[in-house]
Write a structure and sequence with these properties.
With about 90 residues, this protein is an alpha+beta fold. The longest helix is centred in the last third of the chain and has 17 residues, at about 60-75. The protein is globular and about 40 Å long. A hairpin with a 5-residue loop joins strand 1 (about 5-10) and strand 2. It has helices at about 60-75, 80-90, and strands spanning about 5-10, 15-20, 35-40, 45-50. It has one domain.
Amino acid sequence: METIEEKALLPDGSEALVRVGVFDDPYLEEETETVGIEVVVDGETSAALNTVLDPDQDAEARRLVEEIISGLESGDLEPTAAALEPLADEPR
């Protein structure tokens, strides 16, 4: 899976970068197949969590990013792990 990156404009005017993909884990020597979400606001990571997606679920990952972007821009979602967890845990 290639990492998907999209930007969102938050209601307060700040910008968030939403990334979904298989990220390197510096603590693991072997490759991981865990698909994660990372949200960076103003250069600081505000959320990082794992999803239930498999690495071959590219279309589903794209839809997840779209849902997150939509929620962040509307103000329905906060850029926090707690707010994103229900989406991350939803099978697609």
